[in-house]
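Entry:
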Amino acid sequence: MRFFSRKKKYKQRLTAILLMLCMLLMVGCGTESVEEASEAPQEKTGISVGMSFDSFIIERWRRDCDVFVSKINEYDSNADITVYSANGDIETQKQQIRYLIEKKVDVLVIVCIDSESLTEVCNEAKSAGIPIIAYDRLIKNSNVDLYISFDNEKVGTLMGEALVEDGLPKKKVLMLSGPNEDNNVSMVETGFRDVMDRNNIEIVDCIHAPGWKAEAAAEYINTHITEIGNVDAIMCGNDNIATTIIRTLSEARLAGKIKIVGQDADLEACQRIVEGTQVMTVYKPVEKLAQAAADYAIQLAERKEITDVTDTINDGTYDVPYIYLEPIAVTKDNIDETVIDSGFHLKDDVYLNVPEEK
């Protein structure tokens, strides 16, 4: 009798489980229906912004995104903001931008992967009456409505000057830059090379890591480890590359013997600066950049004319409105007054690996 009682309870539990599964399936179907319904035309209640990022591999892009979205929402709580990451694939970025065009966003903000490859899709957006902001990276031959970035040539200048001031006895440096497809890379290199030329420093080689992949730079180091021992310093295209390079140099017992500079003020780079294994990084106040971009995106979304931008930059075909912010060199001497006092990083995080003075 006890056996049948247990069997009955088992059947009741099984029935209950099956009912729950059915309910879950129904909820799933309901969600799908809601998604389909959302595709139907709806009355707009706020501005519509589409943002396309290269990827979120680089630490700073998430911060840019968060500040930008927060600023838009602060202005318009009903704003419809769509953010995409193309994960470094240019064809994916084109598809995402075309979807945003079909969605009829009021403004497009693009962090391009390849400065040369978005002309056609940008023309499609312009034909649809959608204004475009090229964020941080210039989009070539596309006549965007605004290009907003930092003074990238000065970024290279600050890198070069930091190395010269720290001393280069052998007068030999190596450049491990980002991809040629990123227009900022050539601008940074121009500033860096100018400082090297003025100080008679030899650039022994310059390589470009495709897609900002630090592994390519590390592979170069491993392949040329004997030659690397003869250089004073390495200019890294960003702090992510610098992180990988310093780890690679550590394996060859060269870390600390070769001076390293980078840009973006990533937390690990700031930690290395106070520890003494990286000479400097370039701090670019991304909050100011993202906030300014959001302000202009709102103006363009509302079809207001931008009248306060007087500088221009040639995109290869057109002179486009250009806003550039000043980058800041960060060294051990001023790290507290720059990245810490600004709130970019917490002091406890930056000095995490540095023993407290007693």
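The two ends are 77 Å apart (CA to CA).
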